Amino acid sequence: MDEQNIFRRELVDVQGVPVFWGMAEEWSQVETFEARPDDLLIATYPKSGTTWLSEIVDLIYNNGDTEKCKRDAIYNRVPFMEFIIPGISSGIEQLQNVQSPRLVKTHLPVQLLPSSFWKNNCKMIYVARNAKDVAVSYYYFYQMAKIHPDPGTWEEFLESFMAGKVCFGSWYDHVKGWWEKKKDYHILYLFYEDMKENPKCEIQKLLKFLEKDMPEETVAKIVHHTSFDVMKQNPSANYTTLDNGEMDHSVSPFMRKGISGDWKNKFTVAQYERFEEDYKNKMKGSTLKFRSEI
Length: 294
Known about the structure:
Blueprint: H1 3-6, E1 12-14, E2 17-19, H2 21-25, H3 27-31, E3 40-44, H4 50-61, H5 74-77, E4 84-85, E5 89-90, H6 91-96, E6 103-106, H7 115-119, E7 123-128, H8 131-144, H9 154-163, H10 171-181, E8 187-191, H11 192-197, H12 199-209, H13 216-225, H14 228-232, H15 269-283
Parallel strand pairs: 3-6, 3-7, 7-8
Antiparallel strand pairs: 1-2, 4-5
Helix pairs in contact: 12-13
């Protein structure tokens, strides 16, 4: 299939959630995916610290051995389950060839997750990041990762984001759906802003959740190795190993800023006010609270 046919195609709805065309075409494969009881699922809405968390968890699984964690690109160490480009790549196929215990990445909202994860009572880690920073980061990502449709102007993209007309649907539904689900399942729910503010404390939560013990100095090593500046320079974590046709880092690097509060550089006062109003409505009744800066 030539590049023209793969990139900048419109999203396709699966059960009311917009996703990439390839995923929609092969949806039955995703739906029937067989989780294993010792799978660890890393779930996020896009641009919420997925790669960061994946790198931390891979280091925990490898006892802090940073060389081992350079064995391959992050998207091969933690395959993106539902990402399928027919005839070219499939997260499902990739995972079938991975030995247990597997690390599995997903951006699916809770209602679309293959039921085998619930049946097997798999452990899951969810990271949520404040909506305004996600919107800004997602806009730049849409520009550089050409599997997405064209984002249009920032103004247009922000409207699409608020309406849930972006890949993986509504941020509001996504963070709330996973938040509710943690009452009944093995889900550790983390916040990007907490990870930024005190990475060591959040890594200790992960260790406890994963029932692993680690010496202080190994934890310190993981904190250092997964800091934004170190990861940005690490080809096995920063996506520079992908073909420029797929992700154009000259438009915007995959690892752009990695800070909290960058939305202030992008939102106009009017956009901010409109966003906050809409946010209040959509988050009404939820016990979920976010910090939009540290």
